[in-house]
Design goal:
The complex is a heterodimer of chains A (188) and B (365). By secondary structure, chain A is an all-alpha fold. Chain A contains seven helices and no strands. In chain A, helix 1 packs antiparallel against helix 2, helix 2 runs antiparallel to helix 3 and helix 3 packs antiparallel against helix 4. With 365 residues, chain B is α/β, with parallel strands linked by helices. In chain B, 48% of the residues lie in helices and 9% in strands. In chain B, strand 6 and strand 7 form a beta hairpin. The chains are: A mainly alpha (188), B alpha/beta (365).
């Protein structure tokens, strides 16, 4: 079970508060996310993954407490910009989640940020198309659903369209089939 | 409907009044089912139009099921291990006609059989006869594409076991349910222009049809369709270069692996023979690209010959026996179904002759 129980709350004096190091919501957020990182595996890369999440959540809490009421943030462009910023920052955390060590993570981050100019291009066109397509679709879906609830969207759709979409989704799941065993001969 | 967020702390109970009516879906679910069925029929028709017929999936679970036959008391029979040549070129039906008993087929494509050989050597329930297919480039390099199949078969979970039972109910009826026609595999082979310098290996395509007990026959398309045959040959030869031109780390790895593989195979074969198991190593025919690449990566004098000499097992190399020569290999590596029938019919008496000769020599001593 994920350790998201009772720590990262709204209370100003958390249950884990100890004397001068008072467990503010920030400490709670950090503790929860660090534990969340460790829950995924005993590696410092997971700790960084959790720690970054904790830092992001704490920063968001602090910033929204001070600047969150400004009318600017209700503008659609600002909301989209914040959404994309969140997406970019979260992408950095997943590098640490996936990498076996910090050297690999750093190499990956350099490539992501355009700092590595000597790397070999490895992704074939089909991977670029698939990843770009799926990413854009997910971002669009998240953007669309940000202020909506799924059941309300479902209720608003014409029934025939719902049936067609569900049918197509079911078909796509069925023909995807799972992992491939087509073998690669002679690769060492 | 009122919900409470916690039942363990009455003071913190928050009564939340929240109602979410069930959506009235009308006929949408039925329409979805109809659409999915229609699309599936279309997809299945498209797959079958390419000559695909339904068969069993060559899964780790199917292999595990055959491996368990030894645990269940069939360990005194003939077991075949090896790579794809042993899988496709030996036909269990023909063998059964000649021997009166069907062998257990445990060969794994793209995989050195040394790991399976060791597993069987350590299993006292196996007391029969072992036929080991030797594809030099795999056997002596230790490459194991299907490592998970034999490494994890004893760890199969109840969910995997029951999933396999369910899967086998539909596998013989649906042609699209094939690894080569999964959507990602189909997308990956679309002709797209890649950026210059991006390496792109063509994935190995469908080669065979597999039966309930893993008896496999080369797919007819490899015989009947010259384009598909050429594609298979191109896939086998892609990226190949002579061992001498390989980067030093890879060359060193391959050269070191040779010795280790021979050592492991010899130890396992000796262990098996010590408890009365007859072990036969067999090299099936290859041609074309493989006539160059196999001796290059595993020269006979440095690999096959020491293996047979040190293990004390029977060795059947196609170059030494006319019965194992003269078969058509559409894509240089495997025989068509009818050719595999003919090969099995020739191989069986050859093996029996070798086993009988060993017994005579043993009795004379």
């Amino acid at each position: 079970m994920l350790p998201f129980v009772r720590l990262a709350g709204e209370r100003k004096s958390g249950a884990i508060c100890a004397s001068y190091f008072c467990a503010t919501p920030y400490a709670n957020l950090m503790t929860t996310m660090l534990l969340g990182g460790l829950w995924h595996g005993a590696s410092w890369t997971f700790v960084v993954w959790g720690g970054l999440h904790g830092v992001y959540l704490s920063a968001e809490r602090w910033l929204s407490g001070r600047f969150g009421r400004a009318a600017l943030w209700q503008h659609w462009a600002a909301r989209w910009a914040l959404g994309l910023l969140t997406y970019a920052l979260i992408n950095i955390t997943w590098v640490f989640f996936r990498a076996q060590d910090f050297a690999t993570a750093w190499r990956m981050l350099q490539a992501m940020l355009g700092l590595s100019l000597v790397g070999q291009q490895v992704l074939p066109m089909i991977d670029l198309i698939q990843v770009t397509g799926v990413t854009l679709l997910m971002l669009a879906a998240h953007g669309f659903m940000r202020d909506r609830e799924l059941h309300a969207v479902v209720m608003a759709l014409p029934r025939w369209l719902l049936g067609v979409v569900w049918g197509a989704m079911l078909w796509l799941i069925l023909i995807t089939q799972g992992e491939s065993h087509a073998f690669i001969y002679f690769q060492f | 409907m009122p919900l409470s967020t916690s039942s363990s702390e009455p003071t913190a109970v928050a009564e939340v009044l929240f109602e979410r009516p069930l959506p009235l879906l009308g006929r949408a679910p039925w329409l979805a089912l109809l659409i999915a069925v229609l699309l599936m029929v279309g997809w299945e028709t498209w797959v079958r139009a390419q000559g695909v017929t339904p068969g069993y999936r060559n899964s780790d679970e199917l292999w595990a099921e055959q491996r368990r036959r030894i645990d269940r008391g069939e360990g005194d029979g003939v077991v075949i291990i090896g790579s794809s040549r042993a899988l496709f070129d030996i036909q269990l039906g023909v063998w059964e006609q000649l021997a009166g008993r069907r062998p257990i087929q445990l060969a794994l494509e793209g995989t050195s059989p040394v790991g399976v050989l060791e597993d069987l050597a350590a299993d006292p329930k196996f007391t029969g006869t072992l036929l080991v297919g030797v594809a030099p480039g795999l056997f002596f390099s230790g490459y194991e594409y299907r490592h998970d199949a034999f490494a994890n078969f004893r760890k199969e979970t109840p969910a995997q076991w029951s999933g396999q039972r369910l899967s086998m109910l539909i596998e013989p009826w649906l042609a699209f349910y094939d690894f080569d026609f999964a959507l990602p595999a189909v997308l990956r082979r679309q002709p797209l222009h890649n950026r210059d310098g991006v390496p792109f290996r063509i994935a190995v395509r469908k080669l065979s049809n597999m039966g309930r007990d893993r008896n496999s026959r080369l797919w007819d398309k490899l015989v009947d369709d010259p384009d598909y045959q050429q594609l298979a040959r191109r896939i086998w030869a892609q990226d190949w270069r002579p061992l001498a031109e390989e980067p030093e780390p890879k060359r060193k790895h391959i050269l070191e692996a040779r010795g280790k593989q021979i050592e492991r195979a010899v130890a396992a074969a000796r262990q098996l023979q010590a408890r009365g198991v007859a072990v036969i190593f067999a090299q099936m025919p290859y041609a074309g690209h493989y006539a160059i690449s196999e001796p290059d990566i595993a020269p006979r004098a440095l690999t096959w010959d020491p293996l047979i000499a040190q293990s004390g097992a029977i060795g059947l190399h196609f170059q030494d026996h006319p019965e194992m020569q003269g078969y058509t290999l559409p894509e240089w590596s495997h025989m068509s179904g009818p050719e595999a029938d003919r090969f099995t019919a020739a191989l069986y008496p050859l093996i029996q002759g070798q086993l009988a000769a060993r017994k005579t020599v043993g009795a004379a001593r």
